[in-house]
């Protein structure tokens, strides 16, 4: 389990990418596909539909 500070950072990062209220069920919901890290997240209005956010792309945009 990650510490609280990094958990908060992940949540803020997600909000900036989607410009929406987005949550993660757990900081541990990190998926690695072909060596690329994604975070599993879901939208406030459709919590049953999760989607993946590419962390590497976020770092490049920033």
UniProtKB/TrEMBL annotation:
What is the protein name for this chain?
Uncharacterized protein
């Amino acid at each position: 389990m990650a510490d609280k500070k990094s958990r908060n950072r992940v949540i803020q990062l997600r909000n900036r990418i989607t410009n929406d209220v987005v949550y993660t069920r757990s900081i541990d919901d990190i998926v690695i596909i072909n060596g690329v890290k994604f975070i599993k997240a879901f939208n406030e209005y459709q919590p049953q539909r999760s989607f993946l956010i590419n962390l590497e792309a976020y770092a490049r945009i920033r």
